[in-house]
Automatic annotation (TrEMBL):
Region of interest called Disordered, as start-end residue ranges on this chain: 1-59
Top-level lineage group: Eukaryota
Lineage, uppermost ranks: Eukaryota, Viridiplantae, Streptophyta, Embryophyta, Tracheophyta
Domain called DUF630: residue spans: 1-28
Organism this protein belongs to: Oryza barthii
Record protein name field: DUF632 domain-containing protein
One Pfam family it belongs to: DUF632
Composition bias, Low complexity: 29-38
């Protein structure tokens, strides 16, 4: 019964270490992927802007909200909206700097870490592969973690911390797995020894079993020391590096969302002006340039919708994975080590802090904001489709016009040749008779009458298509303005409201951060 309970405990320990590794891997992935998320098309010009405006943005923030300029055309409104999109994108620079350090420094630190981890793992592999033949009676296992930490002292970043924790977790899993395998083998040998002693014979086999047990006990000490050393390194990084970095990251995200909320509120004020726009210009047909601009707008808003969803998802996945990892680090890796060695006041407060952070993100009403952006994507797509219909009618009218011109030119060429033949034989031209009866009689036999009828029918088609095109132009322009007047304000109202909700949620979480520091 005791052996069964011990085996269950060993399996639970290995399972928890495996879960810890998985959570840290998930926490590391969103933090690195979020930095590579593509920007919507209107925001890709942010690098072209001067950085001189950043220092004065805070000072002029309140003034910007009070002084929303009245824009008279849709083009002016769009230009103003794009300007604040760029500013909103720049609000995330601080978070990007926290998540991504100098790539060269991070890679150098990680190479050193992998070198250390691979060396220790190869040592464990060589030990475990020989424990049933000639395991060492005494093995001194030493892992110099201080050298690695000194290497990473300069330019520490949240990204490099996660890289190192992930490598440590992979190493810890292998060490605990090796230790528990040795323990299982040790228990089997003990059972064999008890059986041999009970029977009281085969002293040679009894001595070999005792020697094997002694060697396995030595190996248990080695693997336990390895796991304890790695676990201590993880606890040290968790409490001394990760904890303050998470607090700093939370405040940076609060600052980012507060700035974004400010700029989205200004955009919301600006787009309300589209409701008062009136299309006073003459009906202008849709050109290829118009359709290209509409297609680019649809692609840009669609990219914004995708990136918005990814941003919220990455934040949730990241905090959820970190919280799951933090909870598991509070459990003992070695039952011989007291629980206090794994838990501290900082670790408990940090776990509670991340739990509140996770719950705050889970409660965010991002679905409504995402749906508002998606609805505007559909609005732009409807405009694009309507423009396509208009251009199709225009193309059909142009085709009929070319056909009419071709038939007219052909008729003129035939008439010219036909009239010349009449002139050569001294006959009068058709329609030049002395009375209407003679003229009508001649026209009834006119070989060109059929072609003239075709031209008349073609001319009516051209006129009908031109009328349809003019109507389509009017409908397209009216529908475009109406759809923008109804869709654009609703989208920015939803985004401004959502960003304000995020600010309120993160503000509450950041107030809890004082106990972690």
């Amino acid at each position: 019964m005791g052996c069964t309970a011990s085996k269950v405990e060993q399996e639970d320990t290995v399972r928890r270490c495996k879960e810890r590794r998985r959570h840290m891997k998930e926490a590391h992935s969103p933090a690195s992927l979020a930095n590579r998320a593509p920007l919507p098309l209107p925001l890709r010009r942010r690098d072209e802007r001067s950085e001189a405006g950043d220092s004065s943005s805070t000072v002029t923030a309140a003034a910007e909200m009070r002084m929303v300029i009245r824009h008279r055309t849709l083009a002016e409104i769009v230009a103003a909206i794009e300007e604040y999109f760029v500013k909103a994108a720049e609000a995330g620079n601080g978070v990007s700097e926290l998540l991504e350090a100098s790539r060269a420094q991070l890679d150098r630190n990680f190479r050193q870490l992998k070198k250390t981890v691979y060396h220790s793992n190869s040592l464990l592999s060589s030990l475990s592969s020989t424990w049933t033949s000639k395991p060492p009676l005494a093995v001194r296992y030493k892992l110099d973690t201080n050298a690695l930490e000194m290497e990473s002292m300069e330019g520490k970043s949240h990204g490099s911390t996660l890289e190192r924790l992930l490598a440590w977790e992979k190493k810890l899993y292998q060490e605990v797995k090796a230790r528990e395998s040795v323990k299982i083998e040790h228990e089997k040998k003990l059972s064999t020894l008890q059986s041999l002693e009970y029977r009281g014979r085969d002293s040679t086999k009894l001595d070999k079993t005792k020697a094997s047990i002694n060697k396995l006990q030595s190996l248990i000490i080695v693997t336990s020391q390895a796991a304890t050393t790695t676990s201590s390194a993880i606890v040290r990084v968790r409490d001394n590096e990760l904890a303050p970095q998470l607090v700093e990251l939370c405040f940076a995200l609060l600052s980012m969302w507060r700035s974004m909320n400010h700029f989205h509120e200004i955009q919301n004020e600006i787009v309300q002006q589209v409701r008062g726009l009136v299309d006073n210009s003459m009906a202008e047909s849709t050109s290829d340039l118009h359709r290209l601009a509409t297609r680019d707008l649809e692609a840009a808003v669609s990219a914004w919708h995708s990136n918005f969803n990814r941003l919220i998802k990455y934040q949730r996945d990241y905090i959820r994975a970190l919280y799951g990892w933090l909870k598991l680090t509070l459990f003992q890796v070695d039952s011989n080590i007291p629980q206090e060695a794994y838990t501290s006041l900082i670790s408990r407060e940090l776990t509670t802090f991340c739990d509140e952070w996770k719950q705050a993100l889970d409660r965010l009403p991002d679905a409504s904001a995402s749906e508002a952006i998606k609805s505007f994507v559909n609005v732009v797509h409807v405009i694009y489709t309507k423009q396509a219909e208009e251009m199709k009618i225009k193309k059909r009218a142009e085709t009929y016009s070319k056909e009419l011109e071709k038939k007219t030119n052909s008729l003129r060429a035939i008439e010219k040749k036909y009239y010349q033949s009449y002139s050569m034989v001294g006959l009068g031209l058709p329609g030049s008779g002395r009375d209407g009866i003679e003229s009508h009689s001649f026209d009834a036999r006119d070989p060109l009458a059929e072609k003239k009828t075709e031209i008349a029918q073609c001319r009516r088609k051209v006129e009908d298509e031109m009328t349809r095109h003019a109507k389509a132009v009017e409908v397209t322009r009216s529908m475009t303005l109406n759809n923008i007047q109804t869709g654009l304000p609703g989208m920015f109202q939803a985004i401004a409201g959502f960003s304000g909700t995020v600010v309120e949620a993160l503000d509450v979480v950041c107030r809890r951060a004082g106990s972690v520091r």
